[in-house]
Structure formats: C-alpha cells, structure tokens
Amino acid sequence: MRNGTSHLFVPGPTNIPDAVRRAMNVPMQDMRAPDFPDLVLPLFADLKGVFRTDNGSIFLFPGSGTGAWEAAISNTLNRGDRVLMSRFGQFSHLWADMAGRLGLDVECLDVEWGEGVPVEEYRRRLDADKNRRIKAVFVTHNETATGVTSDVAAVRAALDDTGHKALLFVDGVSSIASIEFRMDDWGVDLAVTGSQKGLMLPAGLGILAVSPKALEAHASSTIERCYFSFEDMKAPSETGYFPYTPPTQLLLGLRASLDLIFAEGLDAVIARHHRLAEGVRRGVHAWGLNLCATEKKWWSDTVSAIVVPEDVDARQVIANGYSKYRTSFGAGLSKVAGRVFRIGHLGDLNEVMCLSALAAAEMSLRDAGAKIEAGSGVAAAQEWYRSQIGLAAPNLQERAA
Amino acid sequence: MRNGTSHLFVPGPTNIPDAVRRAMNVPMQDMRAPDFPDLVLPLFADLKGVFRTDNGSIFLFPGSGTGAWEAAISNTLNRGDRVLMSRFGQFSHLWADMAGRLGLDVECLDVEWGEGVPVEEYRRRLDADKNRRIKAVFVTHNETATGVTSDVAAVRAALDDTGHKALLFVDGVSSIASIEFRMDDWGVDLAVTGSQKGLMLPAGLGILAVSPKALEAHASSTIERCYFSFEDMKAPSETGYFPYTPPTQLLLGLRASLDLIFAEGLDAVIARHHRLAEGVRRGVHAWGLNLCATEKKWWSDTVSAIVVPEDVDARQVIANGYSKYRTSFGAGLSKVAGRVFRIGHLGDLNEVMCLSALAAAEMSLRDAGAKIEAGSGVAAAQEWYRSQIGLAAPNLQERAA
Amino acid sequence: MRNGTSHLFVPGPTNIPDAVRRAMNVPMQDMRAPDFPDLVLPLFADLKGVFRTDNGSIFLFPGSGTGAWEAAISNTLNRGDRVLMSRFGQFSHLWADMAGRLGLDVECLDVEWGEGVPVEEYRRRLDADKNRRIKAVFVTHNETATGVTSDVAAVRAALDDTGHKALLFVDGVSSIASIEFRMDDWGVDLAVTGSQKGLMLPAGLGILAVSPKALEAHASSTIERCYFSFEDMKAPSETGYFPYTPPTQLLLGLRASLDLIFAEGLDAVIARHHRLAEGVRRGVHAWGLNLCATEKKWWSDTVSAIVVPEDVDARQVIANGYSKYRTSFGAGLSKVAGRVFRIGHLGDLNEVMCLSALAAAEMSLRDAGAKIEAGSGVAAAQEWYRSQIGLAAPNLQERAA
Amino acid sequence: MRNGTSHLFVPGPTNIPDAVRRAMNVPMQDMRAPDFPDLVLPLFADLKGVFRTDNGSIFLFPGSGTGAWEAAISNTLNRGDRVLMSRFGQFSHLWADMAGRLGLDVECLDVEWGEGVPVEEYRRRLDADKNRRIKAVFVTHNETATGVTSDVAAVRAALDDTGHKALLFVDGVSSIASIEFRMDDWGVDLAVTGSQKGLMLPAGLGILAVSPKALEAHASSTIERCYFSFEDMKAPSETGYFPYTPPTQLLLGLRASLDLIFAEGLDAVIARHHRLAEGVRRGVHAWGLNLCATEKKWWSDTVSAIVVPEDVDARQVIANGYSKYRTSFGAGLSKVAGRVFRIGHLGDLNEVMCLSALAAAEMSLRDAGAKIEAGSGVAAAQEWYRSQIGLAAPNLQERAA
User: Fold this and answer.
1) Residue C330 is inside which H or E element, if any?
2) Does chain A have fewer CB atoms within 10 Å around its N or its C terminus?
C-alpha cells in the first residue's frame, strides 16, 4: 500500500512543487551576510503583487497562519475594542474564538455552515452602529471547513455605503494566490495568509499585508506583544535582516514559489484553480451528491466539501482513501464531522491529479456503501477538462523512437 | 500545463521512489575508503535474491541494459558461434542485431509482433542441431515494445528434453524485479537487467547474473573486451572495490531500492505488478480495444501495448497525453509505430496512479478521435482494484479534527 | 569566490547535517493521517531526554527561540509580576526587554559583558526579598553574544539556600544539546531552546520544557495568549495532532536530528563540543588574543567571542572572511560591535572544520592588520586535537588501489 | 568521528556542488518527450566549448572514463594497428594495457614515474617510423597517479615537425575543465574525459571529442563494437534522443555543472585550479617534502602526489586522515604504494577547503611519525592565498546586527 506516490488532497498543507523542494534543500546560510538582503528584499516587493497591493506593507512572521491572525489583532486593536465577525465553519469559529481570548469585544454572527459572510446583516449592523464602536470588520474570505468563498468587495461596499470607518480584516489563508483577491481595489486594511496553501510551501510563515490606515491604528494599539510585533518586524522589509532567526530555507522556498506563480501569471494561476475546481464539482454532481456550500455563489475554487449520503459515514470514506488508496482527503470538522469529506484542490495541481482524486473518492465512497456509479465523476470531469484544454490542442508532434 | 506532478507511464526509465531519490542525494564519497565495501558487498548478495539465484555470480557494470547485453555476449561466446534467437519486437530485434554486429552467427526466428518466443520451433531447431553448433539460446523474457512475456521455463524444458547443452541467455531488463523470474529453478545461464526498470533507479547500471556453466564458457571466450570484461569486474563482488570509478550515487540508490523491495517482499512486488497490470488491461478491454499481445498467455505485467482504432493515429494519442495532460506514454516502435501506444506499469506505482494513467489515456484517445466511452476504462479498473484491496479493508479509523 | 563549500561559523543557525536535509526533503504529508502521531509522539519523549527531564512537559511551537521566550513568560506569569534577571550581552538584554514589554516588573542586574549570571548578587536579592515578590529568576545559560556560560546549578543552590520559591527560567537556546544541561537535577522550572542551534535544524521550532511547578503557575496565569498558549499546544504531546498546521518537514528533520544525537550519545555530543571548542580557544590564545569571556569559568563550548587587537576593526575581519574566504563569522553586537568577532562551534562540526575556521580567521585577521603569526592558531589547535583523538588511533588499514 | 562534513581530497570522483546535486534530484523524466532535445542538444554545443573545439564532434556514453577510452580505440583503429604510448603512472599503464587487450600493437615507452610524456623520444620514434606504421600517438595529459601534467602541444609539434600523420589521442580525464586544454589549437584528434572530475558530477558519463580526421579513420575501422559505437551514438547530438536509455539525471547535472563553469568562465576555472594547487604545493614544500613530479614543469594543477619521508608509510597517513580526521586522500598506486599520498585539488573547491586538506594532512603525517612542523604547510598556503586574493579585497561592509 505504500508504493508509488501518495495522493494529497487535503486543503493544506498542499503539495510542494519539486522546484520548491529543491530550492529549500540547501546548506544553512549566513542570515547576517551582506548579500542576504538580496534574497529578502525582493520577497516583500513580490508578495505585494500576490496581495495585489501597492500601498500595503508586508510582514512575514515565522509561525503559521494562526500566528498571522494574532499579529493582525494584537498590532492594530486594543482590549475591549468591538469587532464584527461571522462564524460559518471551523476556521471562522477559531478566528472569533481568538479575538475573544485576546480581549476583543466580539460581535459574532452565527450563520448556517455552508453559507458565507452575511453581507446584508453586516450592513445593517454597521448602519446601526451610530457610535462607531465597531473598530474592525472581519471576513473569512474562504472558509476551508465548508468550501465557501465570501464576497469581500461587497463588505467593502457595505462599509462605504454606511460611511463606516471600521477597518476591514480578511482571512485569506486558503484564498490568497489561488482565488481572486484584490487588496487595494477592495479597500482591505489587513489580510493574512500562510505559506502552506496557495504559496505551496511547508507551514512556517505567517504573512500579512497591512494598509496605511491599519498602520495608523497600529500606532495607538496597546496590546502587549513582542514576537508578533510590527515594530520589530518591519526591519526585514527595510533592511533585509530579521530581528530574530528567520526560517531561511522557507524564504528560499518562497522565492522559488513566487517565481513559479509569476512565471505562470497570477491571473492564470487563479483561472487554473477555477478550471480544476469546476472539474471536481462536476464530478461530485455526477455522483448525485451535493456540496456543503449551499449556493453556487459560495462555491470555493480551493476546496470542495462534499456531503455524503445519509447512510454513509464520511469518516469511513476518508479512512478508505488513506488506508486503501494512499489518498488523503480533508475531514468534516466539528458540526459537519462524519457528514462531509473535503477535496482540497489548491496549489500545485493539474487535471490528471484532480481526476485521480475523483477516482480515489469514487472507490472510497463505494467501499463505504455510497450508491454512486463507478467512473461517473471521473467521466464528467474529463469532459470538462477536455473542453477547456482542447482550445490549446497541439498538432501531432513527432517523437523519436 | 506544467503545474503539479508529471505522470510518467513509459515502460522505463520508471518513477524513482522518493526514498531512492533521497538516498542518492548525498555528497560524493571516497570509493577507496575502508568502509566502502560495507556498501558494496551486500548489494551483490541482495541482487542474487532478486534474480533468485544461489549459484550465480552478479556483475554490475556502469552503463545501461544494452551494455549488459554486450557484456553477456562478449564474455561468454566467440566470434562465429551460432546462437538461436527470436525477434518479435524492437528490443528482441536490437538484441539480435547486436549479436550479429559482435560477430556471432545468429539463427534468428521472426515471429509475429504480439507473440513471444516460439518454444516449439526452438525445440525443433535444438533437436535438429545434431552437431551442437548452437552455443546459446536467447530469450527476451519481456518484450517491452509489444508487452509480451515469454515462457523461459518452457525453453529450459526444450533444452532439457532435447539434451542440448547450449547456454540459456535471458533478457530480463523489463521483467526482473517485476515479473516472476527464477534463475536457478529455470536453469538460466545468464540474465541481464538494468537499473531503470523494476529497480526504480535512473539508468546507469547494467546488471548480470551468470551461472557457473556460463563462467566456464567465459574461461574459453576470446572476444576482445576490456570495459565490460568479467575478469576486471569480478573484483567488486569479492573486495567491494571497483576497477574503475563506480557510480556511487547509483549504488546508494540501489541499496535503498533493494531495501524497499525486500521490505515489501519480492513475491508481493510481483503480485502487485500483476494486480496493477490487470486493472489497466480491464480498462483497455472496457474501451473495446485490444492489446498488441495476441493471447492472454503473452500478457505482460509490466507494460501494456494498446492497439488504437484503425482511424486513430497512436502518435496523436501520445502527443495529446504529453502536451495536454502532462502524461507520458510509450510510443509504438518500428513496425507498430502509429498503431499502438504503451502504458508502462512497472516500478514504483499504485492503484490510483494506474487510474490516472487510464483517465489521461481516455482523454487522449478521445481527443484523437477514438470512439470510446469517457470513464469506462477507469470504472472497470476501479472495480478490479476494489475487489482486490477490499479483502484488507480497515475498520473506521478515527482521525483528529 | 563562490566555488566549493561555504564555511559557516556563526553561532546559529548552524550547519544542517546532510541526513537532516534529506529527511526534510520529502513530499508534503497529511497532518491528520492516522499514522501522523507515529512521527509526532516519539519526538516529545525524546526531547525530554535532551532536556534531561523526566517530570517536565515538552511544548513545541512553530516559531523561533524568541517565540519560545514569549510562550514561557505569557503562560506562567502575570502582568506586574516581579522577575529577577541579569544582562551581560545582546541576548540577555533582549530577553529582559521582552519581559518588560510583556508587562513584567523586571529587576535587571547589569553585569560587565564578558561575565555571566551574578550568582552571589542573585542570592542577596533573593534573600532580601522577604515578601517573596520575585516570582521567577531568569538565567541565560549561554550568552551567545559574548560566549559566556553561566552556572545554572549555582542559581538553583541560591534559591534553595534562601528558601525562595521563585520559578527558575533558563534560556538554553545556544546551550541545550551542546553544553551540559540537567533540567531535573538543577531544578529548572522552564527551559527554552530553538531548532537552529544544537538541534541542527533550520529555524522554525521554539521548544520548551516545563516543570510541574511551572504548570501549576500556568493555571493561574492570566496574560492573554492564543498562538503561544500551553492550553492549545498540549494536544500534540497527548494525541500527536497539532491545533494548527505544524511544520511537518521540520518535525521530520527533528526526528533525524534526534536520531543522530542519540546515536552519538548526548554525553558524547557534549564532550565533542568541549573538545572542538577547546581547540578553537587554544588557537585564539596562540594568536595572543583574548576571549570576551573574562574568566575560564565563563568559557562557552558553543561560541567563542574573540577580542581583536585595539587597532583592528572586527567588522573588517568578518567582512574579509565572508568576501574573500567564503567563511561566515558572527559579529560583535551592540556594546562590543567592532571589538569582537565570534566563531560559532556548535552543531554538526568536526575537528578539521574547526581548523578551517581558524585558518580563515587567521587570514581575515592578518588582512585586517592584526599582527598575529600565520598558522599559529591552527598549529595549537592541531596539537590539541591530535592529543585527544590519538587515543583512538586505528591500525594501518589496507586500502584497495 | 562522523560529525560534520567529510573532507574529500581524492583526485576524483570530486565534490559535487550543491547546485548540481539539486539539479539531479528530480523525478524521472520522459526521454522520448518532444522537449527532451531542449535539454540534450545544448549540452553538445557547450561541451565543445569545454574541449575548446569548433570542428570536433562530441560523443556522450553512459559509462566511465574507461569506457570512453574503449570507445576511442574501438571506433577509430583496427586490430594490429601500431600505436605509440608511454607509461609513467597507474593510469597511463592501464590505458596501454587496454590498448593491448583490444588488439593493438602497442609501442609503449616506460618512463620514470614522476615524469611525463617523453616528447623527444616520441619525436625520434615518429621520425624513425618511415613506413608510417604508427597509426596513433597517445598522450596522458594528466597522470592522476603521480600528479604529472604532460605537454600535449609539444607532441603535436613533434608530429608536425616529422610530418607524421598519426592521430593524436589525449586522455584528459583529470585535466579537461581544470587544466588548460585546447583541442583545436593543439591539433588533438581525440580527447576523452569523464563526468566525475573537472565536471563535478558523479561517475557515469564517458565523454569524447573527435576531430574530423579521427571520424575519417572511424569510417574504415572494423573492430566490433555496439554499445560504444559512434554510429549509434551520433544520434543524440543530432536529434537529442539516445539510442538506449540515457542517465537523465546526469544530463541534468551536466547542464548545471556547465552553467557553473561558464558563469565562472573557463579561463577563471583554470586559473583557480592553478591558484589552489600552488597553495597546496607551497604547503608541501614548507613541510620539507617533495612531490612525486620530479620537475616543476610536470606539476599538476589537479592533483599533488606527495612523497612521504623514508621512515613513514604513506598508507598510514591516509588511514589516519580517514579514520581520525574524516578526510580522504588518494593512495599511492602500484609502484608508489606506501611512498606517496595524493591530495586531489580539482573541481568544486576553494581556498579554505585546501587549507583544511593541508591541516588534516599535517596531523595525519605527524601521527604517522613524520617530523614536520605543525601549521607550517597551512601557513605557507595562507600567505600564498592572501597574496592572490588580496588584489580583490573588499572595503569594509557593514553587517546588520
């Protein structure tokens, strides 16, 4: 069972491209060398491109996306500040939980799992907040637990329409570099991501893009912080040197990963994620199953959470995949445990890999008792992929014997 | 198109397991160090296990399988010696061609491509060879060009039945370590393989197993040789040191590869190759297509050569696979160019990888105009794999959220 | 100048052994797989061995040693708590600075750079603290900036002698796994280290060992924390699963690194660090130069800070090493900038590597105008190393031609 | 003893640059893919630059330098052809031995080991060969066993002066890409090298450059050959495809290695080899020892064979280096076994690495009883290296703390 490649379709950490693995497999380097900034400084410039921001500042913390969340809150807000959040999956839940634990006054809207940020309710709350007690509005751009993408631009519009000056915070951990995200166009004040999703690296970097307005808020923030403080961590983007030991190998991997992304083109990367995701979704629908995301507008291009038939235990599907077919799917978390399994389709993937995910899922589902037709999902996805790639069909190329 | 993993289904060089890649990725070592034999000597012992021989001697030449062929001939035969061969694919053809170029008197039987060694005709020729002019009988165990496996044991029986003392030479390049091969049991005198097939390494090692009887013939062989001479190359198996610079990284890779094979168990490796191959064949038949191998008894467990429909150009199928789906298939060679494409299913593979080969082939065939049903081959293979793996189904394993 | 190996003699991040590099160079894995705990759980058991604790609990945070410091403080103390610290180098300075920024009431003793923890003054302060306002005593076991090792056991004795119940915190970032450290024997309540020093990994893991008494204090700690909270991070040591995405490759590297340490034996590792360091020191003294550490009792076995002659700029020495000789030394920081350069001699090193450090330093010093004799430091170190290794001299071993 | 880097100073196989290791650490590729020639074809063009030939043709055989020798002889000469050779070390000896075994009529001049090709005697023999029976003249450009470089241009002059039309064959295994070699300028007809010396790769490629005149001779050559035949192996340089499975990883490594060489500049590479070698020689002379090469004109820039004092066994020196100091030296072979040890200084090396070789050699010599002064060789080499690098001294570069 351990022969051949393992098939990783969790929604992160994602597959590491071979070029990135190679870039990280180097002897240790001198992080105080005169040429170390030649590595570091361009990373900041290029990451701005990934967030699509000209005005924002980038902060890179050794840590995870969770650390980036904490950095976001502790550098810009104060204990007791009211923030408007919504909760519709495990990761938006954890974010709200952290905000509370760090001392914020969290106004959290509970939404059906399978839906996204309730923009109209946000609008109502903002409008009703005549005393402007809400200091920040939080948006989970892509809820990894349910495969739901929310409309950040609409939240911006709600802020603008109501004339509310609250900061707009976005969790882009499983969207940035994979799903359209436009920091400046959408007036986002602070966005966070991690290295282990669309950036195709191991976990270990929490990345933030921070608007000038959020940096202003930072100036009056009083939450104690040290490791995650912007004060200390602005140095790397200015000098190329870190205040404490950076994960040099990850920085080298980030260089390689950004090179891959820009060589493909960020727009092309995003289009590819949509194309691959759509194939998976067509497969799911061909099985006669539904996504956890309740409406097409919520469909995520980085992860599909699939509701199994009532008489099937999604945990068994996942166990089958791992133990019998060397394939890893994501589990249903918390409220949807046992009811959904997830196919992550972000990062370094191609069409045939997605077909292998569907093929493994079909077998795992059928082994778990699901009455779906063998090959049906694969066939639906094949037809979609052929229709998309066909446009670029090559002529017959002679090959040597 | 260059995202994600490439899908390599040529019948060699095969996918390199990650553990083997890692084992080869080391600083250069001192090939004259006192502990270098600790690496080298066990390789010879373990390779005997792979050839299933106790009596044979192993020779390891830096070179390819073709070099091993040359070593076999030039060390044991003499110019003008008559040898009995048969030709039914590009690789048996090349072997016979080499034998002629090296000065042997080649009695070569031409057989329909798609069939294997003509045992009965061999028997007749041996029986008719009253003057015992035939010094060696050659058997291409697995013809990689047509996906045909021949019956070595039956050739041995023909030799025994006719009381003929000719040497029995076997080309096991694409069979050994993947398809049942029993050197001692079958009375094989000389078998050759290369590093880049069942041994899952890059090309660069030609490997021979030589019986005591063949070594006797060697003593009276007069063909000039130096690089490929057994005299010089017996040292490594005795002392652990090579007469000229060995490819140390490949030796380290071979160590890792043999460890993988023995950890799985050679019988299990062979059974896995059969299981995986059978899934591919069921897929092919579900498409309504035929193998190049004309009868079930010839079916190869390491490579399937698939005949495309009359109105389809197999070269276009292969071009589609490579250019549109990042998938490499083997081409039809020489006589069958354009008529067949090949799926290599040997080495480091698992079920889902074989399904991805079928999925990519289905799309490539359909893009080339073949009227086969989308998903049909995948479905047939899935059912086969499920039936085989189901026996070892795990219970539900709880996973952490 | 960029040919050959670079020579890294900064006191961290240290050279990564090839075996560790290989262990980290793997495809991404499923961090929720049923067998993931097989990797994770033994790490915790083995790290207890490295800290020499039976009773302590291990916490592993994705982050750096600085993050581990923050975790230590924020999980066990409360804002306003008085702590006793001392400052005699850049890293003890930064630790005290963090303590203040996190809201502690820091009683910080300034000591001459080149000396270590002032045990007698600690004793006096503890004795005078009749109201037991001091909640914790901090010891920088090895000050990386000055190459000074302090006496942790003596601080424990001071606590015991005065009957003071304050917690004993140790910064072991540049000592643990390299210099003798005995958590249980010395009654240490909390010790921190990072992955990038004696553990020979890239930066990215902050590691803590926490005594039962410190865990008790944790129960009543009220500092807001989330990322670095013990509550969330106790799961991995119990279940093998992390509360947020772990740096899997680093965990695999840690496995390999611990395997190397235990194969050599922790005592042998520590003895080797002493042997290698002593050679470097003999070289320094043969040059006629002094260490920053003012007395022999302070000499560090992991880093030597070397005071350059008055008319020499240590920054030029370092610049020469890097630019002319592909060799990295550590800089003098803050108060000793320009006055010292540092040779890190911890982690994956051997005698000849240390000789190359001395050889490069000799050239770099002479190029910067220092009047030291060429080869003198190397010769002194050679004699020391020969005297130490000679005991284990092998007989003549025949080598193959 | 197994900590840290091993120190490899054998004269091949040489240290593999990290960039080359990385380039070879890739998944297996499709050697029949339409874009495979994009890798292969430029290698041939670039190798012509390494041999400094415009007119020559390159052949690349999977095998070793020994295989390249065999290819050279068997493709251009005929059994019974007289060739003029000379023997003054183990490798020139083996070459002559091969020539005899392959059926040539070898006129071999025995020269004192420590000298090189006897140009005047060659001249006399050529002049005396009125019937022009000598078909080829062989020159071992660099005798690896004794560290002797011969004068190829002078042999060309001898041929020209005598009007002799014999082919000029050069063994450049340990010179090409490291010591000045000019195929066209020197009228060399056939030169061979291997991948594992100046090209800094693992063994596994035998490389030949062949003049138009030698290709003419090839047309009338009748030695049986197959694996090493030019007929079959001209395809790769024309089509990019190999007649049998190529060692793809080595080709990728060769790409990286050529990139490194051209980035540094071939002239700079050769100058560096001279600079590094001269430091080693100054160290040897500072010890009061002599090279095996009897005159300065024979000194090799890729390997120094060092004669140990009479009462010292060179094998013990080598054993000490390996077992006590993790350092590999080359052994004295055959006639000079026990009398010399060799320091290889070719390939991916820098000054500090050479100093570490001298430092390890000093200890190994002294441990074996040699009365040399500790540090003396290192000091002499340091002064040389400082004098050479000093010219390019950088200004003080500020480093971040």
Assistant:
1) strand C327-331
2) C
Cis link prior to B34 (omega < 30° from 0)? no
Q: Which domains does chain A possess? A: 7-13+265-392 (3.90.1150.10), 19-263 (3.40.640.10)
Determine the Cα–Cα distance for residues D364 and D265; give it in Å rounded to an integer. Answer: 35
Residue of C nearest to D273 (CA): C3
> How far apart are alpha carbons D182 and D151 in whole angstroms?
11
At A134 the three-state DSSP class reads strand
**pLDDT of A34-50, one tens digit each?**
999 999 999 999 999 99
End-to-end Cα separation, chain B, in angstroms:
34
How far is the C-alpha of A5 from the C-alpha of A362, rounded, in Å? 19
C-alpha C309/C-alpha C287 separation (Å) is 10
- The percent of residues in chain C predicted with pLDDT above 70, rounded, is 97
The values of phi and psi at residue C293, to 5°, are -65, 120
Q: Kindly list the residues from chain B whose CB atom is less than 8 angstroms away from the CB atom of residue A268.
A: none
∠ Cα A69 A70 A76 (to 5°): 95
Copy the structure tokens of residue A225. 């912080």
Give residue C399's pLDDT.
39
| Model confidence band, residue B2 (pLDDT cutoffs 50, 70, 90) | confident
Residue-wise pLDDT tens digits, A375-395: 999 999 999 999 998 654 444
Crossing angle for the helix pair D152-162 and D119-128, to the nearest 10 degrees: 20
Mean pLDDT of A303-324: 97
Residues ≥6 apart with Cβ < 8 Å to A26: A249, A252, D18, D22
d(CA A390, CA B2): 16
How crowded is residue C230: how many other Cβ atoms within 10 Å of its Cβ? 22
Gyration radius (Cα) of chain B, Å: 22
Maximum distance among all Cα pairs of chain B, rounded to whole angstroms: 77
For the residues B138-159, what does the mean pLDDT come to? 98
Degrees to nearest 5, angle at CA D304 with D299 and D305: 105
Q: Are B276 and B351 in contact (CB under 8 A)?
A: yes
Q: Beta-carbon neighbour count of residue B79 at 10 Å?
A: 14
- The ipTM (two decimal places) reads 0.96
Do the strands C148-149 and C142-143 form a parallel or antiparallel pair, or are they unpaired? Answer: antiparallel
| Cβ-Cβ contacts under 8 Å, B382 against chain A | 359, 362-363, 374-375
- β-strands D134-140, D82-87: how paired? parallel
Residues at the binding site of D are 342
The answer to whether B224 contacts D223, with C-beta atoms less than 8 Å apart, is yes
Instruction: Write down which chains contact chain C via at least 3 CB pairs under 8 A.
Output: A, B, D
Output helix, strand, coil percentages for chain B, rounded to the nearest 5: 45, 15, 40
Chain C nearest C-alpha distance from B127 (Å)? 49
Task: Record the tokens describing residue A139, joined without a space.
Answer: 């948006």
Q: How confident is the model at residue B398 (pLDDT cuts 50, 70, 90)?
A: very low
- CA gyration radius, chain D: 22
In terms of CA atoms, which chain D residue is nearest residue C200?
Answer: D4
Written as one letter, the residue type at D279 is: G
Residues in B closer than 8 angstroms to D98, CB to CB, are 226
The answer to whether B359 contacts A367, with C-beta atoms less than 8 Å apart, is no
CA C193 → CA B234, C172, C174, distances in Å?
53, 5, 7
- Residue corresponding to tokens 């900034």: A37
> Tokens 């808020």 — which residue?
A217
Q: Which residue has the tokens 């020579």?
A: C7
Cα angle for residues C314, C316, C322 (degrees, 5° grid): 110
User: Chain C window 63-122: which residues touch D at a Cβ cutoff of 8 Å?
Assistant: 90
Instruction: Tell me if residue C168 falls in helix, strand or coil.
Output: strand
Task: Give me the residues of B, 224-283, that contact A with CB < 8 A.
Answer: 264, 272
Contact D239 A400 (CB under 8 A): yes
Residues 6+ apart with CB under 8 A from B163: none
